[in-house]
Amino acid sequence: MRLSELAPRFFQSNPLHSNLNRSFMADSPMIALNFPGRHLLGNTKRCVLAGDVGGTKANLAIFEATADQITLIKTSSYHSGQYPSVIRIIQQFFRENPGYKPDRICLGVAGPVFEGHAEITNLPWVIDKKEIAAASGVQQISLINDLEATAYGLAGMEEKDFLVLHPGEPGIQGNMAVLAPGTGLGEAGLFWDGHVHHPFATEGGHSDLSCRSAEDMELHDFLLQKYKVVSWESAIGGPAIHDIYNFLCQVKKRPANAAVTDAFMHDDPSAVISEAAVAGTDPVCVEVMKLFVLYLARESCNLILKMKAIGGLFLAGGIPPKILPLLKQPDFYNNLLDCDRMQDLVKKVPVKLLLNDKAPMIGAGWYGAYFKS
Q: Are residues 75 and 202 both part of a single domain?
């Protein structure tokens, strides 16, 4: 079934139009990004279906945009693994929300995008914009990387969407970086041209883990039994927390707490471990997260240096907000500064936690509304 059969043309008198979730002033964002098609829109209203499609869940939303304002109208969330394709999720969205027909569709996807084609990194899906266009009847389809979408989402953030971990030297203009540990590890940059920022995607999370100490090498060799290549995602992606726990128990012979391992049977082990560490109820879990925070700080520093991100580092993704008490402890910042002769540069960088988990979806909405077709 074509999506156009499920979603008649969006029109202004639609009853859901008054159920606004959030509006953004497009002409005065908190962080200025490059949207070359915004002024071309004028007073014309554009309807955009935007999405953040990952290995765990897919968040979809309807946005309505003019040159001066973009409004989030309706959102829904789906478990990605319960659907055979993103097209089926889009179809489900329109079944649940009849009355919308977008002018454009933009999806931020968890994987590299090549010429409108992407394979989801942690899901056996292939997403192709031509297939989406054929199924939907919508001809203007954009696929962007999910971390690129997160970076574009910074345009729609407010002060309340951030928590400042370290102020650095506020007011310095320059490149920015986004580091997002969640199901995997995403990284993106924002190039500063002297006037606005230009987001771009990377696959830096899949670069090799670098080791400094004998313990680092021990962990690397332990992870090498599971992964063909031990990347930074192997050390600070979501599954890494459980892997580090197993390393400490199996290689370093730390005593496992039966209450913790029993909880693994019912809940996500990485969540169990991180929660126990934040609560301080299990010394092995505390040690696990001490190592996790160490590696998170090191890769944060690496990203700052490679991007020369003096404009700011943003920690995004699902994990950082859940371990906020650990990030506020001195270890994170001390290890962030523990780099090769560039401490003065790193000290200048504001480090902020992005609290709004819908930033990739919002970024896809902005990109879909304002980028030139």
A: no
